Amino acid sequence: MKSNICQEVNSVVVLDDKSATGKTRPWAIHKANAQIVAEAYASVDYDKAVRMFSCADYLVYKKKEGGGLMLHDARFCRVRLCPICQWRRSLKTFAQMSKVISVAKSEGYEFIMLTLTIQNVSGDSLSEALTDILQAFNRLSKYKAFKDAVKGWYRGCEVTHNLNPESEWFDTFHPHLHIILAVKKSYFSGKYYIKQEKWFDLWEKALKHKHIVRREDQHVNKCYGDYKSVAEACKYTTKAKDIICKESWQMTVDTLAILDNALNKRRFIGLGGIFKDIHKQLNLSDIEADEDLVHTDDEAETDELSNEELCFFWNGYNQRYEL
Questions:
Q1: 170 vs 281: CA distance, rounded Å
Q2: What is the pTM of this model?
């Protein structure tokens, strides 16, 4: 069977799901990583391990009346650190923010990409550091200079883990914020323009000087709200490569325990100003909610679908989805 989502390999029909742009969706990679993380969860939280082992075991596609196939149903575990669910959340976030920024563009706004961070911290300090960095951004957004200049903002938080044994920062965690700011066109030549050094001064002030801020790690640049900049801001909270340590299973388990505790019950995405208003006007769902991880922007069921279904099941031995 030939379609936009499968190919025949040695007489077996294998999932080869492609996006509208022709890029293969990495279902098998994320599912394989989820199996590894689930195994580690068996030593951290057995309930989450069971849920994650069965995450996306099957994927149901339906035929479109106009041709092609579309994901129709799947069962997701919704564990925050599940590689599959994190990927699906990032697709949803990207889709929503693309729509929000498109509206803001049409209203004449321009955009700035801001990256704010602190020096790496140990696992024991990660939870406190995340509280500090998220609270610091809330303080920053209330400063007069920020409110005068910025008309809307998106804030996402990412945590990376240094697993390079040759690095001085080995086995430390790096929390940082990816931020998109909406400003008026007059901002870049007007009195409310904030220079790079001023941004960093404000960030240190917002952190109450509780953390070392290496200025070379902070970035502020004009962006155009294009695919690349939005995708950069809508990254996963933590990628599988920051959890899975190929050289040490114990470090994998320990890392998972640290992240599971530090990330628990936190909101890592925030909207303010015109971005929040536009999001509401578009009647978009809670940007961090997990109600629907099946449909993303180019997977929304806007076309008429037939009753014919194709169901792909995960083959752990072959590490792929098969019909």
A1: 45
A2: 0.91
